[in-house]
Design a protein that fits this description.
3-stranded antiparallel sheet
């Protein structure tokens, strides 16, 4: 699964999201923290989809 991590140099904050899981994202103050939080967010998001009987989106993001 592809993850996009963005950094705001003005605030120092990091944001991350998984393009193949709409609505799945995280924010943190450090790169190390955002990597942990986005993995947890992805796991939580997928668990929620399964619990609600919803399909897990197919991976479609391409990075070049």
């Amino acid at each position: 699964m592809k993850i996009v991590i963005e950094h705001d140099p003005e605030t120092g904050a990091y944001g991350a999201y998984a393009p193949d899981l709409p609505g799945c994202g995280a924010a943190a103050d450090s790169l190390a923290e955002i990597k942990v939080l986005i993995q947890e967010a992805i796991q939580f998001h997928i668990e929620g989809l399964v619990e609600n009987g919803l399909p897990i989106p197919e991976l479609s993001t391409v990075v070049e």
